[in-house]
Write a structure and sequence with these properties.
Length: about 375
């Protein structure tokens, strides 16, 4: 069973991975050009080249090591561009790098092999052989993107595994609360009161709603993403049982734009936040309270808000500590699922508490 320390351990793991990535790059970069030099040197021995040619090989390997270093930083900027932009960027960058590399190599030829039957009469001849150098830089680029893509797949796999563990923990915590004898006692007592008041139809609807919600929580895959519309249906099942306890003291307002209803969210995302609001904003007050849930699409982001008009907390730190389980688990789950591409904020709104979430917009596929 994962604990709250799991995300911290994951963060330390990723920090170590960044360090090892940097070390791995320089090791592979140096090894690649060293291998190039060795292969060229063996070729010079086989074909009995002059001693000056071996100095040219050394110069070419050192120049290649130096001039190809910027490729890493250029390709980092290209990484999140469109495939077409990446391809064009690779071709242009490889060719320009090859021009600089051949300039160094041809200078080495002129310096260390003056006896070579090749005289440079025009400045542009210093860039001769750039096409061969381009193939070499394209090979460098292919290795770089291949390794980076493989690493991305590994990171995604690790993030999926951590997300599954956190989602499973969130579901089990919710189920423990829902199956808590005190919760069931209050709910069943409210149903019993309806039966005694001869409101049998309402009582039957309440039992059905309670059964549907418990079945939903047991059957729902914690890794599955559902539409906001489906998430609200599950919330209504949960809230209908809570309204048996609080009647008019629990007031719910929904304000969702139509495009937001078809967006995808992690299943059971909002339920812990609503549960917190019921526990801290509605239950302690004689007059109850209002919970407002909002959803909208802004650009490429889905924005969700859960706000209540309860007493709130004295400070932001007290807010996190006081409502720690629901808020902390939701925040950690979103961090594993979306990384730095999401926003999560718990705001002491005076009065009440406002939870704001922004997720990358994902649309449900139409079958």
């Amino acid at each position: 069973m994962p604990t709250a320390a799991a995300p911290e351990a994951a963060t330390r793991l990723l920090g170590g991975l960044r360090i090892s990535r940097n070390t791995l790059f320089w090791c592979l970069h140096a090894a690649g050009w060293f291998a190039y030099g060795c292969v060229q040197y063996l070729g010079s021995l086989i074909y009995e080249k002059e001693t000056g040619y071996q100095l040219v090989i050394l110069s070419a390997a050192i120049a290649g090591f130096v001039v190809s270093m910027p490729l890493r930083y250029i390709y980092r900027m290209l990484w999140r561009q469109s495939p077409r932009a990446i391809l064009l960027g690779i071709l242009a960058t490889s060719y320009l790098t090859a021009l600089v590399w051949r300039l160094c190599v041809n200078f080495a030829y002129e310096r260390f092999m003056p006896e070579m039957d090749w005289e440079i009469t025009h400045w542009y001849q210093y860039f001769g052989g750039a096409n061969q150098g381009t193939y070499l830089m394209l090979c460098w680029s292919a290795f770089y993107f291949g390794i980076k893509y493989y690493e991305m797949l590994q990171l995604q796999r690790e993030a999926t595994l951590r997300s599954a563990a956190l989602a499973q923990e969130a579901q089990l915590r919710m189920l423990r609360y829902q199956l808590n004898p005190h919760f069931l006692f209050n709910t069943l007592n409210a149903i019993s009161t309806l039966i005694l008041d001869n409101q049998n139809r309402t009582a039957n609807q309440a039992v059905t709603r309670l059964s549907d919600f418990l079945r939903y929580t047991l059957d729902q895959d914690p890794m599955k993403k559902v539409t906001v519309r489906q998430e609200l249906d599950a919330l209504n099942m949960y809230l209908s049982t809570e309204q048996l306890r609080f009647n008019d003291r629990l007031r719910i307002e929904f304000a969702f734009e139509e495009p937001a209803l078809e967006a995808l969210v992690p299943s059971l995302l909002l339920q812990p936040l609503i549960e917190n609001a019921v526990k801290y904003a509605v239950s302690p007050r004689e007059g109850g309270g209002t919970i407002r849930v909002e959803g909208r699409v802004r650009g490429a982001m889905l924005e969700l808000t859960v706000a209540d008009d309860g007493p709130g907390a004295r400070t932001s730190s007290a807010l996190i500590e006081g409502r720690g389980v629901g808020l902390r688990n939701t925040r950690e789950r979103l961090h594993v699922l979306y990384g730095d591409t999401h926003r999560f904020a718990a705001i002491n709104a005076h009065p009440g508490v406002r939870i704001e979430i922004a997720l990358p917009l994902e649309k449900a596929s139409i079958p």
